[in-house]
Inverse folding.
């Protein structure tokens, strides 16, 4: 699964945050109200071998009617009952080997007693007839009076333990089964499920029945049902059907956004040495999806926001490929080979994140992949609440296993292992891992064993510190040159606090020394808290690099003089090292050499990523010299993504007539929609004299997918002009496009904070089924500081249909309302509930105030709606 990019994701994501975002790119995996995800794999009394699932639907009541026959084989002598996970389902009848059987139900189980104790190997067919109105797991997206033109859709989302809400079954990953899925739906609809389409038959009364069969076993959370008014585009890879589905009216967007899928399948099959393992590959894009994407075996479901408008798609350098490659990577890692328990979920998500980078490097080039990895590391280190937690852990009780340790850090760890073992050995190990564990459930030790068997390299120490241990090395670096000995003494200190699961790291890496005679590379292994390494050098170094190219997940405080950073900026061959120089130089204020050097980088670096980083940095430095550099570079910048960074950076320069004039010009007539959107938001932040008029005009005008309208609505919040309230109420209303509503809601929360009617209106939006509307309302209420919103947020927290992303967000906003910025408890607020440390504040490092957090959320939400990073790590919006 890829989280909606509210990470960073917002993932990349963009990695939603993203997603994914990331990005933002954020995964909104649904959490059961009766329990958290089980951290350890269950002990099993039976093996669920096959399920024949027949479903019909009552659209008006949003109900499902099911007949399922489970074929099970008993695993333990003396078994007296068969228990299935079942929540909120009314069980009408049960038969055991075609004979009527007794059964009992609890809040979360259907229990079928056996007539006599069974022996291991005994087989039973258990048929269950039932109905239900699922609160999660199965979703009905249907037209209504407010959205009468919305295409009808029904889709499922099983991860992590939500299949039980529409299907009584064994709902944990440590079992695998084949399936036959029979769906009876309106005759005009299309359906998608696991495996091959066996046939479509007339069911009478304007209905048709679709039958799908999956012959390769997988876990029940990977069962998928998609049905509705869709348009289909057919493709293939080596004779295997590859199909794409879009909600009715958006089929023309499929080839543009998804057409590279066969090339991805081909690359992954070749790299891994294991061909794509399923009978087909379908990708269904659905509305109001609760995740960025979900890797159901042979049939991924993705958010329809990934269907980017043809006029906007060319403005994103990697398109939707992060999302697509992530979910495709899961077809091997997560579906063919599946984690045994949620404590090892990184074996699914870390590998899928790594496979994103494999595609990026192969198709978009090494620099793009290096930048995403470099940026992902920075984002991970900013997320303080991940630091003390190992990747492999079983101490969670709140479905929090799906965090950025599993995704971004997991992908980073695999890339480090790849670098240490070498390309050939690493992929030889992965092939062996997939071959020996095909169709099995695994734990991290299975990967370590396979890698060692294939490469004859002991990886125990690597796994111990990076997977079972926590944190990452923090280095303090310096060097001295001895002209008499012609020697460089290089000092490496590890400064991370050693506590809990965080220790001193053993890191094999390289030091490059460049002097008058050229570069030389020296391998070293850091393994102590304080070490000194000596290297020969005929002359004083022009540049010393530690971990050239940035292959180790780390932070480093490298004590260098300005002239060496300037040399590194211009001469380092690897993107990560030049990016590090940009960051280091950005910390030097008021220097006559730094700003021109960054301006030169902005205009001339060979990669757009470093150029964009230079633009961001010039914006943070500020001052008239920096603004002139940005204005000059904007005239020559061709790429839409680079122009948007430069324009956003200009949004930091107040009371600069040249900047204001340029922003107004860009907002009205630039060739790039992204640059125009960035200009609108910069105008709002700068509160220019004509800001409201400019934003009002942009809101009134049309653009692809309301792209500019949404940007202008988001800008009204930072503008802070209360006369925008009627406009924001108009565009936040039910019936307006969902993405437009979220933009308006985000800004509405920041205006007229003493207006109780606005608070009531925002609280009313909490009851809506649309995730993005609800979460925007949560943040908007938190930003207002109005304690009258507390009961509504507390009531929402008790809802049984929340995602794991929503819970900490709600807790975070409640904590802010109960504890104002002065740090004193609010006397009007009731005590109780989790503190802010459990409410999402740590994700910001504890450094941002409420408005800053809201601005950050707005940027990440825009990334999610525009491109899905997930996840944000692929192309994060510039930080302000």
């Amino acid at each position: 699964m890829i989280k909606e990019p509210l990470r960073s994701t917002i993932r990349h994501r963009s990695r939603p945050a993203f997603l994914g975002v990331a990005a933002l790119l954020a995964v909104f995996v649904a959490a059961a109200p009766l329990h958290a995800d089980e951290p350890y794999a269950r002990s099993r009394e039976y093996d669920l071998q096959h399920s024949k699932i027949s479903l019909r639907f009552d659209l008006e009541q949003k109900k499902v009617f099911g007949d399922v026959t489970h074929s099970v084989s008993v695993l333990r002598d003396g078994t007296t009952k068969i228990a299935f996970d079942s929540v909120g389902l009314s069980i009408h009848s049960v038969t055991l080997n075609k004979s009527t059987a007794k059964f009992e139900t609890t809040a979360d189980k259907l229990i079928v007693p056996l007539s006599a104790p069974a022996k291991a190997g005994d087989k039973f067919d258990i048929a269950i007839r039932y109905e239900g109105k699922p609160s999660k797991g199965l979703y009905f997206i249907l037209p209504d009076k407010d959205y009468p033109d919305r295409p009808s859709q029904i889709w499922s989302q099983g991860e992590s333990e939500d299949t039980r809400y529409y299907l009584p079954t064994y709902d944990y990953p440590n079992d695998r089964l084949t399936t036959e899925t029979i769906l009876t739906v309106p005759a005009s609809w299309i359906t998608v499920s696991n495996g091959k389409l066996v046939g479509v038959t007339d069911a009478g009364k304007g209905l048709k029945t679709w039958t799908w069969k999956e012959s390769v076993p997988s876990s029940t959370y990977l069962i998928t049902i998609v049905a509705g008014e869709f348009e289909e585009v057919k493709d293939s890879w080596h004779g295997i059907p590859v199909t794409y589905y879009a909600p009715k009216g958006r089929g023309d967007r499929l080839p543009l956004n998804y057409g590279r899928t066969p090339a991805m399948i081909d690359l992954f099959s070749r790299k891994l040495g294991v061909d794509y393992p399923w009978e087909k590959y379908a990708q269904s894009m659905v509305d109001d999806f609760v995740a960025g994407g979900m890797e159901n075996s042979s049939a991924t479901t993705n958010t329809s926001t990934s269907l980017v408008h043809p006029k906007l798609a060319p403005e994103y350098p990697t398109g939707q490929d992060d999302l697509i490659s992530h979910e495709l990577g899961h077809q091997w890692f997560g579906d063919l080979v599946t984690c045994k328990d949620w404590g090892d979920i990184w074996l699914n998500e870390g590998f899928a994140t790594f496979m994103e980078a494999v595609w990026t490097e192969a198709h978009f080039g090494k620099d793009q992949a290096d930048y995403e990895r470099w940026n992902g590391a920075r984002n991970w280190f900013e997320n303080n609440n991940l630091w003390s937690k190992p990747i492999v852990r079983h101490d969670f009780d709140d479905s929090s296993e799906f965090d950025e340790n599993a995704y971004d850090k997991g992908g980073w760890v695999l890339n480090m292992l790849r670098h240490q073992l070498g390309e050939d050995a690493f992929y030889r190990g992965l092939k062996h891992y997939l071959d020996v564990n095909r169709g099995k459930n695994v734990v991290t030790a299975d990967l370590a064993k396979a890698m060692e068997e294939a490469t004859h390299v002991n990886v125990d120490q690597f796994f111990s510190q990076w997977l079972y241990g926590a944190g990452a090395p923090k280095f303090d670096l310096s060097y001295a040159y001895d002209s008499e000995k012609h020697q460089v003494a290089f000092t490496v200190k590890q400064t991370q606090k050693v506590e809990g699961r965080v220790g001193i790291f053993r890191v094999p890496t390289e030091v490059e020394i460049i002097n008058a005679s050229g570069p030389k590379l020296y391998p070293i292994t850091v393994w102590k808290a304080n070490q000194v390494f000596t290297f020969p050098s005929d002359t004083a170094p022009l540049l010393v690099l530690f971990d050239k190219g940035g292959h180790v997940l780390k932070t480093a405080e490298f004590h260098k003089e300005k002239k060496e950073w300037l040399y590194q900026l211009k001469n380092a061959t690897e993107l990560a090292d030049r990016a590090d120089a940009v960051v280091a130089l950005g910390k030097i204020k008021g220097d006559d050499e730094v700003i021109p050097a960054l301006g030169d980088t902005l205009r001339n670096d060979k990669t757009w990523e470093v150029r964009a980083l230079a633009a961001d940095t010039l914006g943070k430095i500020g001052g008239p010299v920096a603004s002139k550099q940005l204005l000059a570079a904007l005239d020559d910048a061709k790429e839409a993504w680079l122009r948007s960074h430069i324009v956003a950076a200009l949004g930091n320069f107040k009371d600069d007539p040249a900047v204001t004039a340029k922003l107004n010009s860009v907002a009205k007539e630039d060739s790039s929609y992204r640059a125009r959107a960035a200009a609108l938001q910069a105008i709002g932040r700068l509160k220019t004299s004509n800001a409201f008029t400019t934003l009002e005009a942009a809101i009134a005008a049309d653009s692809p997918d309301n792209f500019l309208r949404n940007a202008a609505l988001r800008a009204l919040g930072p503008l802070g002009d209360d006369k925008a309230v009627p406009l924001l109420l108009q565009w936040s209303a039910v019936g307006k496009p969902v993405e437009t509503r979220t933009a308006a809601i985000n800004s509405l929360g920041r205006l007229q904070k003493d207006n109780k009617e606005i608070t009531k209106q925002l609280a009313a939006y909490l009851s809506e089924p649309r995730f993005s509307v609800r979460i925007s309302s949560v943040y908007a209420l938190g930003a207002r500081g109005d304690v009258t919103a507390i009961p509504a947020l507390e009531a929402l927290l008790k809802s049984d249909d929340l995602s794991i992303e929503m819970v900490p967000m709600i807790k975070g906003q409640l904590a802010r309302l109960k504890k104002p910025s002065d740090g004193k408890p609010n006397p009007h607020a009731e005590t109780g509930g989790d503190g802010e440390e459990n409410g999402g504040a740590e994700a910001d490092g504890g450094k941002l105030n409420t408005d800053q957090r809201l601005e950050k959320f707005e940027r990440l939400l825009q990334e999610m709606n525009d491109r899905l990073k997930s996840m944000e790590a692929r192309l994060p919006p510039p930080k302000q």
Residues 5-34, 827-880 have pLDDT under 50 and may be disordered.
